[in-house]
Specification:
With 125 residues, this protein is mostly helical. The protein has a domain of 79 residues. Helix content is 54%, strand content 0%. The protein has 7 helices and no strands. The longest helix is centred in the first third of the chain and has 21 residues.
Amino acid sequence: MPSSDAGQSLLELCVGRGGLRKGMRVCSFIIEWAICSGALGREPTVVEFIAWWKAKDRTVWLRLAEFRGIFETEQTPQVFVPALGTDLGDVGRHADSTTAALAAMRVRLTFIPDGIATQGPLSAS
């Protein structure tokens, strides 16, 4: 069952795990993923995500690696989509850039997905 530590923002969770710079980038990536997922009505593949955002392949793969570095048990940010508790698909249908993703960073998580620790940064190992 998911953790009941609801109310923590996605940004707080990401920055707490990855530090300010990396946490901000990962938070943005998760929101962008959620927007794309909502717009498609399902989990996108990485290739679909790249095409939907009209992003560069290398950039997306690097951002996905950064996400996996902070959330080691997850392959994609899809686990966060239901936890955001809001319909970002509506935003996605009207978004032309990452501006919508950045505006959504302060969205409060309705729950913390299983396996996602909320306390402190990752160990240096």
